[in-house]
Amino acid sequence: MELSRRKLDGRWVAVEANDDVRRYGIELDTDDTTWEPVIVPGHWRDTPKFAASDGPVMYRHRFSADPPGDGARRWITLDGIFYQADVWLDGAYLGDPEGYFFPHTFDVTALSELDDEHVLAIEATCAPQGGPNNRRNITGVFQHWDGIDRQWNPGGIWRSVHLYDTGPVRVDRFRVLCRDADTRRAHVQLAARLDSDAQRSVTVRTFVDNELHDEHVHLVASGENQIEWSLDIVDPRLWWPRNLGDQLLTNVAVELIVDGELSDRRERRTGLRQVTWDNWICSVNGERLFLKGANLLPTRAGLADADKGAVRRDLEHAVDLGLDVVRVHGHIADREVYRAADELGMLIMQDFPLQWGHARSVRGQAVDQARAAVDTLGHHPSIVQWTAHNDPSATTAVDRSDWKKRTRQVMAHQLPSWNKSVLDRWVKRSFEKADASRETVAHSGVLPHFPQLSGTDTHLWYGWHRGDAEDLAGLAARVPRLVRFVSEFGAHAPPNTAPFIDDELAAHEWPHLDWDRLHNEFGYQRDQFERLFPPDQYESYESWRNAAQRYQSHVLKTHIETLRRLKYRPSGGFCFYALADPGPVISASVLDHERVPKDAYAVVKAACTQVLVVAGTLPEWVNEGDRLRLDVHLINDLREEIDFAVVDAVASWAGGEQRWRFGGPVPADDVVKVGQIDMTVPETLGELSFTLTMTAGDITSRNRYATAVTLPPGA
Questions:
Q1: Which residues make beta-bridge pairs with 613?
Q2: pTM for the full predicted model
């Protein structure tokens, strides 16, 4: 039979829901002429009448459809609903879906046979989340998070609504996982959930790049049936990360044949590759890779509001920076993120949308939605890791002088909690049962604790929430496991495009802005800024912004170079925070919400080049007569050896300079120490700078560092 599909998008009508609306607003003959027109897909706050609403909102849509043909079944799929819903067709209740990132489908065959005219009614609910603890929605960073206006509500029908016909057996879910692959063979695991109208014999055909690869028969019962099978693909076309090879993609499709006719079909575009992790060092197809990355935030606060081009451009910015991986931070993103990553060869470390502390009631949904995440995204070769929960302890920045708060923060990592010890284990187990082809991490940003003494990836934030950026090198020497993979670090800086600041400057004289409003609505972290950059110490907003951006550049450069020097010994990589903002905000991103770069963008790009010459950590200031020793390293991320590299180092100060020359080979994918700058600090006060220049054939790298020569204490 012919499989038909249409979208029920476009003009709908809506009203805030109450008991009367639920009782009388779902029928076919309800008068909805006074309801507000809305556009689906979208978020209800995109409509001016609901711009401040927290819902729930009842949506209605009238449509005409001929009854399904003989032997056909009809379905309605909500491709994306934020976050819960109750659904009716012609007044008949269909169900109560929950979960924003995967489709929800209902059998409407019997109702479709009664008439040609129909009304679909959907009550969408997205309850506000009041704080960092006891959250009940699995919506991640889209609710009550410091990177988006905390009053924002993403509720609505954010993806298309589909009406489509199949034969008697439908493919409800289709999972494709590449378990292992090499140049000779790729082993692909497949699973499908089939929905049958009766007990039947079904022929399952599997196609690889439009060629029939497997055919077998299953006897299915009425209702849901789970089937699993596997394929061995000989001489596979391997998929590689962008710096290791080509991004060759493979289409895998399944067809269901019932009584000699096509009943349903699904297709997944995947990549044949093998991912392994060893102590936070990632390998793809047997090639290990030091992961240079960034946290990827939502392109826009409303998923429906970001066009595919803008989503893809964010990943293209990551490529431009020289990154290998993005960590999809605290959410599951639009499908275009994963399609673009597959095509660009950008790896993804995927967070499940559990953010901070959650109530005990979410466990069942979290387990089910973890399986749905694998069904929905598991075929993407770019995804190399799942993380079940981001920062389950909801640890926030504290005043460094407040030892009581610091102690509570440390204890939150060390002591058992329901989120860390129960919820995260259940969700991790759900991922592992559904997907054995990737590593799953129980939680991100949790320090070593009993019984997980090795810890996980770390959120360090030296130079912002704690200590100084230069402290990272000392931490690495004392506790190497804490720098195996640093998945959050950085410093906040005001953006170059800031209409909310323009509004403040128009209403107030600098520096007497409405800092409370900037904190509550635009992410201004008052404690950190007032400690590092007190606004009243700067003559203008521009000078304050520029100082913060210079400091952000310093923090990112210091962290990235320190971690790259520790490549594989023990560091497997990093993800700085963050690539770009979803909206107007004062944040740690290097691109603002209009994608205008901050100063740190160019600094990060320079620090992430494949071949880089770096010096050891330079103190912020030195005294005349001090002995200064700086190790000089060459970092080579290329897959080929550099036969011989020459490094020229120049120390410069007012009225003088000193020079050194080092050289030697650099193995492929390695770091070597090529020399040491050893000098006595000159007596001239002021700036002391070091310039490093590396040449190796047509490969060059240049770096610069500076400190200040001051008088010793008591001089």
A1: 634
A2: 0.96
